[in-house]
Design brief:
Elements (H helix, E strand, L loop, with lengths): L1 E3 L5 E3 L21 H8 L4 E5 L16 E6 L2 E10 L14 E8 L1 H11 L2 E2 L3 E2 L3 H13 L6 H13 L6 H25 L7 H17 L7 H11 L2 E2 L19 E2 L16 E7 L4 E8 L4 H12 L6 E6 L5 E3 L16 E6 L7 E2 L6 H5 L7 H16 L5 H8 L9 H22 L4 H20 L3 H12 L1 H4 L2 H5 L3 H13 L3 H13 L8 H14 L3 E2 L2 E3 H18 L13 H8 E5 L2 H11 L4
Parallel strand pairs: 11-15
Antiparallel strand pairs: 1-2, 3-4, 4-5, 5-6, 6-18, 7-8, 9-10, 11-12, 12-19, 13-14, 13-15, 15-16, 17-18
Helix pairs in contact: 2-3, 3-20, 4-5, 4-6, 5-7, 6-7, 10-13, 10-21, 11-19, 12-13, 12-14, 13-14, 13-17, 19-20
């Protein structure tokens, strides 16, 4: 049947378009999008176009003015916006059929359905999505935790895969294409995860179930064999054929039910998350601690050995005490674990001297601390910057983009999805405190001047090594009130170091939305380590400045802006040009940097500052 499109153009639509449906088109180019209209109309949907300006205007509308709305049961479920997906060709003219649609808002189910519809299958090369489709997939997979749980996504994908329409040959072909698109999307999802969600029980069950479904469908759809191979490679799954291949009558679906899964088939391979780590605070006085990197399975004996070496105290003279949050005391035995499953210490850890009786006395004498501070003056500044960067890079490369989403939106009370991000934020704070501690524990004016000069050089080296996390931390540590008030010390700093410090300070200037930092960071080659608090600030600004839902539909424009920010993490972690960020550092320097001595009591720090230079 024929419909009038509103401008005198006539076109034929599928008989599946229900009488009473409405289709309003205002541009000739829209005729090329009717395939999508017909596909959506099969479900009896109402397809409307939203536009700006007069309906009778003869002037062509810009892409920003063309929005299309899909409505079901009287409610909007999907809003799309037209874009031009191709560059100008032949005299600057853009082909009309290259216009595409991006998601503006919609329900989670319809966004996923549109995402699958937008993928294009090539019989020879598999799925070949366009750039816009790639961005849509990436946006969805990065930000779906905002509007649906992982369990809901797994169920939705299984539902799309199992949809069967066998009323004819065309429906069979369409069902096969949908299955292949779902499998491609799942492959994209798992590749993006990089082990981030592979420990999730819902994901484990989903991958096993999907694999069995695909094996069941192989008899009916042999074209899925290539997808099975991809799944086997991706999940380390193995298929066992235990039937006689010489008996054709025995070849059937039962052949593909012979399935064996490795016990740990869904464990990530070679990912940084295989050895999860945390920063563990071991208090050596009541207000100062050693910050030490501890792995998830570390026991008390191993941690105590590292503390003894750092403090240059015989191991046999020390014990490890856990002070619980309700005030209880627990003496850790050598094989007791110091971290819980959530990578949290079992309590506040104190290293204590073995007493003659049952009383365990923590180190409380600060007189020993300045002696250890002098070691910093004998270490090469470049080596310190290398060790600091190596430490930060180990953490940063294990951060997944979605950690920033979980951290910002706090969808779940558990912090299991933000471990690496929190670790890097904690490291930034501790490096700042370490700088303050080292300067304020140096009682000699001359040595204190040398120490500040060293820290200025270390900050410059960190910037040169593209480690903006430590760079910011060191500059902020030198700018804290307890250090910056040391007027006599800063007067002794040579002019060239003062100029260098002033130059470095300008990069940390927050004016104009940190323009100096952003310009400097943009010029740096990847891989590089950004300043994490600023990334979180950008995402929080987008989150708080835009609604997540409009009329019960997900505001996908907001999620696209968030995904653009998240992709910065990925860009910083990649090393396309071989600009490796890690370098070799001596074991002595690594041992010093890996176990930073920190005073975390601000009152103690100010007391030390006033003791060095009393208030006039």
């Amino acid at each position: 049947m024929s419909w009038d499109c509103g401008l005198g153009y006539m076109f034929s639509v599928s008989p599946a378009l229900q009488p009473g449906s409405m289709c309003v088109l205002h541009d000739k180019e829209e005729l090329y999008s009717m395939e999508m209209v017909q596909r959506l109309a099969k479900d009896g949907c109402r397809f409307l176009q939203r536009h700006k300006g007069s309906e009778r205007s003869s002037e062509p509308q810009s892409d920003e003015a063309v929005r299309v709305c899909l409505r079901e049961r009287g409610s909007d479920v999907l809003v799309l916006q037209r874009i031009s997906s191709a560059t100008a060709r032949g005299g600057g003219r853009v082909e009309a059929r290259n216009r595409r649609y991006v998601v503006v808002s919609g329900t989670p189910e319809k966004i996923l359905e549109h995402l699958l519809d937008d993928l294009t299958l090539d019989d020879d090369q598999g799925t070949t999505p366009s750039k816009e489709s790639d961005i849509l997939v990436d946006d969805f997979l990065l930000t779906y935790p905002v509007f649906m749980s992982t369990s809901d996504l797994c169920q939705a994908l299984l539902g799309h895969y199992c949809t069967k329409r066998y009323r004819g040959k065309e429906d069979r072909k369409e069902a096969l294409e949908r299955k292949r698109k779902v499998l491609h999307l799942v492959s994209q999802w798992m590749a993006l995860c990089k082990g981030f969600l592979r420990e999730d029980e819902h994901v484990k069950l989903f991958t096993k179930t999907l694999y069995r479904y695909v094996l069941d469908d192989l008899y009916e759809h042999p074209f899925l064999e290539k997808d099975v191979s991809e799944l086997q490679k991706l999940y380390q799954l193995h298929r066992r054929h235990a039937v006689d291949e010489c008996s054709p009558h025995r070849k059937g679906k039962a052949l593909f039910h012979q399935l064996s899964l490795k016990e740990h088939s869904l464990q990530s391979r070679g990912t940084p998350r295989e050895t999860r780590a945390a920063l563990c605070h071991v208090y050596v006085t009541m207000d100062s601690f050693l910050s030490m990197r501890a792995h998830s399975g570390m026991v008390a004996e191993e941690l105590l050995q590292a503390v003894a070496e750092r403090m240059e105290v015989p191991l046999e003279k020390l014990v490890l005490l856990a002070v619980t949050y309700n005030g209880g005391r627990h003496l850790l035995q050598p094989q007791d674990r110091v971290l819980s499953d959530s990578l949290r210490p079992v309590g506040r850890l104190h290293v204590c001297r073995k007493g003659l009786g049952e009383v365990l006395n923590p180190f409380t004498d600060n007189s020993e601390l300045p002696q250890r501070t002098a070691r910093m003056l004998s270490i090469n500044t470049w080596d310190v910057a290398v060790a600091l960067t190596d430490f930060d890079w180990t953490i940063f490369q294990s951060i997944h983009e979605q950690e920033l989403v979980y951290f910002t939106f706090s969808r779940h009370g558990s912090n299991s999805h933000t471990v690496a991000l929190e670790l890097l934020l904690q490291r930034c704070n501790e490096v700042q405190q370490w700088v303050m501690t080292e300067v304020l524990l140096c009682s000699t004016l001359g040595k204190r001047v040398q120490l500040i000069k060293k820290f200025i050089k270390i900050a410059a080296h960190c910037k040169a090594q593209r480690n903006l996390n430590c760079f910011f931390a060191i500059i902020m540590g030198l700018n804290t009130a307890a250090v910056s008030r040391l007027g006599q010390t800063w007067e002794k700093i040579p002019g060239k170091f003062k100029r260098l410090f002033a130059e470095l300070e300008t990069i940390t200037d927050p004016s104009l939305n940190h323009k100096a930092y952003r310009d400097s960071f943009k010029k740096m080659k990847a891989p590089k380590i950004p300043f994490p608090p600023l990334l979180l600030k950008d995402i929080t600004f987008i989150h708080e400045g835009n609604k997540t839902f409009h009329d019960n539909m997900v505001n996908f424009e907001k999620l696209h802006m968030i995904a653009d920010t998240l992709r910065l993490i990925r860009q910083c972690q990649k090393d396309h040009m071989g600009n490796g960020i890690t370098q070799k550092s001596s074991s002595e320097v690594r041992a010093y940097v890996d176990y930073l001595h920190i005073i975390d009591n601000q009152q103690t720090l100010f007391e030390l500052s006033h003791r060095l230079e009393p208030r006039a």
